[in-house]
Amino acid sequence: MTKKRLDGWFAVEIFMLLAFIAVLIYPLFGIIKQAVIMPDGSFTFDQFTKFFSNSYHFDTLKNSFRITIFVTVLTLVIGIPFAYFYAFYRLRGAKLLFVVSILCCMSAPFLGAYSWVMLLGRAGVITKFMKSAFGIITPTIYGFGGIALTQTLKFFPLVFIYMNGAFKNIDNTLMEASANMGCVGVKRLFKVVLHLSMPTILASALMVFMQAFADFGTPTVLGEGFKTFPVLLYNEYLGENGSNYNFAAALAVIAVLVTAVVFFFQKWATNRFRFSMNALHPVEKKEAKGLFGLLIHLYCYILCGIAILPQLYIIYLSFRNCKGAVFSDGYSLVNYQQAFKKKLVMASRNTVIMGAVALITIVIVAVIIAYLVVRRSSPMSHTLDTIAMLPYIMPGAVIGIALLIAYGSKPFALTGTMTIMILSFIIRRMPYTIRSATATLMQIPLSIEEASISLGASKLKTFAQITVPMMSSGILSGAILSWVSIVTELSSSVILYSNKTATLTMQAYIYIGRGEYGTAAAFAAILTVITAISLFIYMAVSKSEDVRL
Does the residue 246 lie in any domain? Predict the structure, then answer.
């Protein structure tokens, strides 16, 4: 047994463990240390007491829970029917619906918030039109309602991605058996389909919860008096009115604990519904006919149309003449000209280069971790897998602060460099690809690799030429989500960036803050185009219209 473990893969395990300690464990302990060790060296829990004893601070956490739970439930309510109609019925323009829905979730959240301000803000286009044409005063886009609207339309496609894959894994014989027992229609949906899909429902709910809880940009743009926890965390660390690093570190620890509790609750709930299911006879799609067919087409197209409206409007605004925060009549390329003068080329280059380096690293790490967990299961490999999933429960701002504490000063002094930005991208987004690659490898029979070795191929050659190519679908699915999340990352980048490492997302955020909306729209439009191109490349390479985790 010892000889088996003391081979090349054992060395890889040791190397990966040391790397994870350096980029994950060490920075996390740095946060904990700063939360309880004061500048004078004293040990105290005063920063935690400060948070729970101050109603304003504690209310931000309650606000985050209120909005996050509401958004999670709402995304399930609208996302599950959308996925059900897509998976079980032949919809006209199904591929268009798929592309549009994915594009809705593959953009920086704050860009949607910014666009909704342009549409439904106090001087928004829709607001003014409804008042002048019908005398109707639209509800405010600011506060709880506006954040909920923006986040729901942004995150419901995540539910669609998960549930579409789950519905396709349901065996048609189960559907036929339920029909023979008189369980059809809505009754079958709730009694059979949703029950079989419960683990996926819980997984998608967790994904939405984590994304919504960690969202910094949307509450910043739309919050006004409704303050959320990530905004408080950012303000305490890099606030205009002074910083309190120790208190910010305590907030970061609280954020990790809160999300960890939610994560383990989801794991516990999922274990209650654990079972194995393979679709040997996939469900055949039905024709969507009659009034019901019309209604489900309207539901899907109206939902996608509303959700994609912010991205389309941003592209439209990028061609409108604009001076400061005021858009005037006429169209031109002046916003793009201003963007070129204000580092559009540099921001685009940073986005692509840093994103590409981070993604390549993520794919390599994901393949190695998946292979170690599935093919060389051991306490060491499962420890690596557990550590690799830590970023899943860590909001982006926490990762940014952790890296800044660990590597922001001498002897490393990585503050504002591409290196620390790339590290944050890798840490923040690698769980997607690791989970997808691991799930795919579990479905590949070990006998295939054994046959290759028995025919004379070395273990390394078998791994490189047999195993990895067979994992390609899972790797691509996780990689596309990691990539788009990387290029639209804000919450950690806003803490770590410098003028030389700003990405397109950061530049758009910066110019929104400065009130230069036309320039911001140009940066956001380019980012949207890059996101769309990424999705089309994925679909062309994978020859699939599914993105599964």
Answer: no
Separation of alpha carbons 398 and 369, rounded Å: 24
Residues 6+ apart with CB under 8 A from 82: 101, 156, 159, 160, 299, 300, 303
| Residue 4: per-residue pLDDT | 47
Q: Above 90 in pLDDT, residue 303? A: yes
Distance CA 214, CA 64 (A): 9
Domain containing residue 413: CATH number: 1.10.3720.10
Domain presence at residue 519: yes
- Top-ranked range on mean pLDDT: pick from 78-87, 202-211, 461-470, 480-489: 78-87
Domain around 426: 1-38+328-549
Count of the separate structural domains present in the chain: 1
H-helix segments, 143-197: 144-168, 172-180, 185-188, 194-196
Contact 370, 438 (CB under 8 A): yes
Q: Decide: 158 and 105 in contact? Cβ < 8 Å.
A: yes
Quick check: 252 and 230 in contact, CB under 8 A?
no
Q: What is the DSSP string of 15-73?
A: HHHHHHIIIIIHHHHHHHHHHHB-TTS-B--HHHHHHHH-HHHHHHHHHHHHHHHHHHH
Task: Establish if 278 belongs to a structural domain.
Answer: no
Torsion of CA 270, 429, 255, 117, to 10 degrees: -100
DSSP 463: I
Q: Report how far apart, in Å, the C-alpha atoms of 435 and of each of 369, 389, 483 are.
A: 10, 9, 15
Predicted TM-score (pTM) of the model is 0.84
Residue 534 lies in a domain: yes
**Each residue's pLDDT tens digit, 455-507:** 888 777 887 888 888 877 778 877 887 888 888 888 888 889 988 999 999 99
